[in-house]
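INFO  loader      accepted 1 record
INFO  loader      residues=587
INFO  predictor   begin
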Amino acid sequence: MKSASYSGISQRLFKKTVSNIPDEIQIERNLELEKAGILLDYTQYFAVTLFTLILGAIFTLLLTVIFYYLFPSMYSLLLILILPGLVETCIGLFFLYFPGYRVKRRAYNIDLFLPYAINFINSMAVAGISPSEIFTTLATIDLYGDLQKEAKKIAKEISIMNVDSITALKHAIEISPSIKFQEFLQGIIGTIQSGSELHLYLQNSVDKLMEEDYVQRNKDLDLLGVIAEIFVTCAIAFPIFLVIILTVFGFFGSSSVSSILILNLFSLFMMPIIYAGFYFLIRSTSLEDLNRIYSKNNLTFRQYLKENETPLMIVLLSFLIIIISYSGLHLMDYLGYIQFSMYPQLDFVFIAILILIGPIGIYNYFQGNKKKQIQYRLPNFLTEVSDGLSTGATIFDSIKVASKSHYGPLSFEIRKMKSQLSWNISVKEILIDFAERMKSAIVHRIVISLNKGLVMGGNTSKIFRAAAIEVGQVNRLENQRKATMSIYTVVILVCFFVFLAIIIIMNLTIFKSFFELQGRQVGRMAGVMFNSIDPMELKYSLYSFVYVQSIGAGILSGFMMDGKVSSGIRYSCILGIISFIIFKLTF
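INFO  predictor   done
INFO  writer      dumping tokens
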């Protein structure tokens, strides 16, 4: 749909068809497409839909006919009759529901950042900056997703099309997909027309929307709780029953190979897919959208190496340890000191994975924890600077006074800011440098807001206080998430140890008895046929299952709690080491 040539061809082919669409329908559908952010009018969209349906039918029919020619059968003939209709239905449903889906996604994205954007513009409105200047400034800040696009539309109408502010805001209300944003703009119109103070309305809007945002994020936590419960059922409880059924019944019947094969396939392929699915499901929540980690774009290879020097060195060192260890074990096997056969090699693979993910994961966890502590103290620092500025002090003096207070890990950053100011480095460069060191979405957002606010000449004290409110809101949400999800982390870890205990008990009782009978060459008892199973094969099949569980459950348990994979890797390493030791001691 982004291709102008494709839409142009479609419109030329169906020019007569689309010209018969009534004007009322075109106006209504054009408005929906504009809300969805689709850069086509309805006649173009309808023509593209028809052209795509025809192309899909021709391509699918050709494909099924060729398949029937190569593999003639009743099933391939049936495919010719069914598949084209199925493809046409899917294409039609896609074009029918895609605009509505886009409208909902854009509304969600606007509502997500709306409280923080209003909090920013509120700090400028105190200085008497006009609405047109406010939206022009908001349009230049690449931090608020689709909200920035809506601000650009308003700024474009005012500055380029020379439309007055009231008319531009009314037009924005018509084409905005977000009801909250529409209500906000309507409130601005009412405030301007009544001659009231705009900053008072914005302050009330900030308080209201921040509270609504907190309630909405709590609803997202409830959703995350449901996801966690489903995860425990699908990825923890179900595999326990599956392992019991496959291993116990693998001793009976015609063959044990199929049971072991199913167990291996499920542990090595299905379980990672299940864990990956839950990972992306958790990432799709607004809690993750709100606090994406900021990273620089368009870095050269040398800049990227410099930016990530320590993590890359840790990964490289881990690789070297693995390669040197593997080469040494092979050399000892060649010289006859040890036997480095298949099962010892599997042990090495399990340990190598822990060596690879453990150091870098733990390093990132401690680095992230340090930055989180700085982020938790940041609102207090911003508030103290705001208080200093409100008394008439300069930014240098305010930061100098704040540097004498104790802010934990943030104190080092404050002292660094103080030193940079004494070297006559601009406040803008100092704040940008701080954001680059933090690599945090929220810090990056407030730094740009602070710099924009300072350039616009708003109330400096108010700007810093607005930033403190924004960081405080995000900290509040993160603390709430940690408190709510920690119980699910405990449940996941407890379920893993229950799973491990069941495997140990089965090994010491059921498996032990079967292997004793197998050692006596007892193939039948009470009319029941016993299969012969290799103890080592069963051991490593079970260990592979438990190992995958330890890695996946550990990562997701930490990720659910604070949205950081590194938090989960520490659990994965602990669970993986415990599993390895348990299996070596009990099997």
